[in-house]
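The material for today's practical consists of a large collection of protein records. A record pairs a protein's sequence with a compact description of its fold. Instead of coordinates, the fold is spelled out as a row of discrete tokens. We will come back to this pairing of sequence and fold again and again. Here is such a record, shown just as it appears in the course material.
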Amino acid sequence: MDIASDHEHEHEDDSISLQQLEPSPVYDPTSVAANNHDPDDIPFRGSSHSHSHDPVQPHSVPAHRPSHRTPYYLLRIQRYSSYLSTVFLTLHLTNTSLLPLITRSVPNAERYLLLTRPYYQSALTEPALVALPFAAHVLAGVGLRVYRRVQRSRRHGAETRSERAQLAWWPALSGTSMLGYAVTPLVLAHALVNRALPRWRHGDSASIGLAYVGHGFARAPWTSLALYGALVVGVSAHVVWGAAKWLAVTPATVVGGRLDAPSAEATRRRRRRGWALNAGAALLAAVWLAGGLGVVARAGPARGWVAAAYDDLLRHVPVIGRGL
């Protein structure tokens, strides 16, 4: 009886081991994106709260496998470059918005601008504090998206061009990423008008200041208002939500219930956290616009040879400069 029973158990074990399973993509525990969602919604693993709030907890990586891959370095390039950009943005916001708002006068604010601008517009500090961090931040973000696309193609076994075409080209974009890509051309246009054009036409940008910005608003008020407003609002929202991601305080970090069906309390906390971040972005944009539009934009056009020099620069702005 015991022998017969053992044979029955072995037969059952064999049938279980030979059970057919539905095919599924191979999961790579070292991949940044395990699904189609944008990992911007997942806390940065370098933060102190990331492990306790991370909704995706992959299996531990074996010791013989490398723990640092391409996403590890790209994420850190994107993070630490944003620190330098934040330092520059703080200085720039203080000079172009806060000081005009405090002094209520463009000529008085220009004095402080001339004193502090050499610290972040010299031949050494401008590339290190402005150009290189901005380029590294943007290129690291693009590199991450390309890497996720390649990894997802491999995970689903897409080998031919037609098989890869059946997959969505990019993983889903988060709101923070969309804002970043949207404001990138506006930031480049801002640098072109205020830095590149003066150097090309006049040899330097020593005469470019708040009066030049006010002159541009006087010559093309509606165009300047639209572009400047979009730049300020977009950058403010991107900075606030990006900082929330690095600090692991985005709504996605709130846990409660299942991952696909959060509890009612978790849903309320996520909603309140989203409102708080949007309020912070709105406050930053309001302060920025108060000095930029409330003081600098109302300074009026320049006079004499200064006005002629400013007009020459504005006429060479691509597309919108033709009618000035």
Residues 70-103 form the longest helix (34 residues). The chain has eleven helices and no strands. Confidence is low (pLDDT under 50) at residues 9-16, 26-37, 39-64.
